[in-house]
Amino acid sequence: QAHLVESGGGLVQPGGSLRLSCAASGIIFSINVMGWYRQAPGKERELVASIGRYADTLYADSVKGRFTISRENAENTVYLHMDSLKPEDTAVYYCYAAAGVSNREYWGQGTQVTVSS
Questions:
Q1: Closest listed residue to residue 34, CA positions, set 85, 81, 94, 110
Q2: For the segment 34-68, what is each residue's pLDDT rounded down to a tens digit?
Q3: DSSP collapsed to 3 states, the chain
Q4: Pick from 78, 67, 101: nearest CA to 21
Q5: How far is the C-alpha of 53 from the C-alpha of 31, rounded, in Å?
Q6: Is the pLDDT score of 1 beyond 90?
Q7: What is the pLDDT of residues 68-91, one digit of tens each?
Q8: Which residues does 49 contact at the CB level (< 8 Å), separation at least 6?
């Protein structure tokens, strides 16, 4: 059974940094894209960043220059390094993976990131 397990969320002060990790297991097809979405209270889920198998990346405008996504293909693991965090970055962050020719999606349970003084 496929699992995506996130870690690294927590409480941080504005201007601080956090690193999220997500490890995928049990996915029998080749993973094409991995990435992160987030959902703040009362808002829709939005794409934060994604990374393809060949390290092609995509970032939301709101996080460009502050967040960095990376991936270890051999370990089916994706990371999100977040710098210069702002209160508006507060949200539940969800890891996802798209695999196989149909890009079937798999989702993690989410990890809370709270940016507050």
A1: 94
A2: 999 999 999 999 999 999 999 899 999 999 999 99
A3: CCEEEEECCEEECCCCCEEEEEEEECCCCCEEEEEEEEECCCCCCEEEEEEECCCCEEECCCCCCCEEEEEEHHHCEEEEEECCCCHHHCEEEEEEEEECCCCEEEECCCEEEEECC
A4: 78
A5: 7
A6: no
A7: 999 998 889 999 999 999 999 999
A8: 35, 36, 57, 58, 59, 60, 63, 67, 69, 80
